Amino acid sequence: MLLALASALFVLVASAPGDPLQVLTGGYAVSPEFRAAMNERFGLGLPLWERYLLFMKGIVTLDLGDSFSQGAPVLDVVVNRLGATMMLVIPAFVISTLVGTALGVYIGTPTNPGWLRGSGNGIALALYSTPSFYVGQLLILLFALSLSWFPVSGMRDVRAAQTGVWDIVWHAVLPIIALSLRELGLNARVTQGSLRDTLSMEYMVTARSKGLKRSTAVRRHGLRNAMMPVITTLGYNFGALLAGSVLVEVTFGWPGIGRLMLDAIQVRDTILLIACAMAVGLIVVMANLVTDLIYTKVDPRVRTVE
């Protein structure tokens, strides 16, 4: 999957119009000598098939050369930015999973007050329907500009000589909230629908007929089976958070891989752009693999083949 992704990305990016050197020099005319030197250094003048072979060799050997827009090795640039993105994605994933699942269980349990379940269902639907970048702009207007509780953008306070962990955490609060709310609504909706279907199963009716309270039957017999669709979507949710981080990082000026990917697109840094997409693809593949392994542990009906 990763090799197919790398090939597709290379063809798409290489087929896009434009001259990377013109973007790099700000649109000014460049001399033939400078163009020849840059083409030789970054391999821009090679035939497409030769560039593809060199690129695939770099993928296999983990040596993609230097980024002409960043002036540093491509892998070093991606790894340095990937940590900042994970600082947003991992907390957002935990929040959206735990809070969204809890909200879905609440609005999916018939014994809870109807008006509260209806309100929770409306909130979950509204969160799922609102784009992350729009939520980020609203959070900036309210909590950063109007109330001045949080910084507007960035990862650190540029006015301070030294910044600590709490300064980074304080800058990350609004981006994490903006990134997590949509997937929180999705998890709540999935959990609610799964729990509603589970409560109508025959074994739940049997448990109720044996004298168990509805809350006890839900907790002992229904909740674990209702979690199966939620666990299935965990890998998708992680990938969606990585994709959504691009717009959230741009909105909040967060120096992560999403912002780096946008910068690479603007200057047509082909290798850097593909490396960013490959890093995201690798994480998504690993997240789906972990999801499958968790599924086999939670559901006793699923067993791996020895």
List its salient traits:
two-stranded antiparallel ribbon; 1% strand; elongated; mainly alpha; 306 residues; single chain; 13 helices
String of helices and strands: HHHHEEHHHHHHHHH
Most strands sheet:
2 strands, antiparallel
Strand order of the largest sheet: 1-2
DSSP summary, beta strand count: 2
Terminal CA distance: 24 Å
Strand proportion = under 5%
Helix/strand class: mainly alpha
Number of helical segments?
13
Fraction in helix:
over 70%
Q: Tell me the overall shape.
A: elongated
**Mean model confidence by pLDDT:** 79
Gyration radius, rounded: 24 Å
- Which stretches of 5+ consecutive residues score pLDDT under 50? none
Molecular structure report:
With 306 residues, the chain is mainly α. Helices cover 75% and strands 1% of the residues. The protein contains 13 helices and 2 strands, in the order ααααββααααααααα. The protein has helices spanning 2-15, 20-24, 32-42, 48-61, 74-108, 114-129, 132-146, 165-199, 202-209, 214-232, 234-252, 257-267, 270-298; strands at residues 66-67, 72-73. It has a two-stranded antiparallel sheet with strand order 1-2. Strand 1 (66-67) and strand 2 form a beta hairpin. Helix 10 (214-232) packs antiparallel against helix 13 (270-298). It is elongated and about 85 Å long.
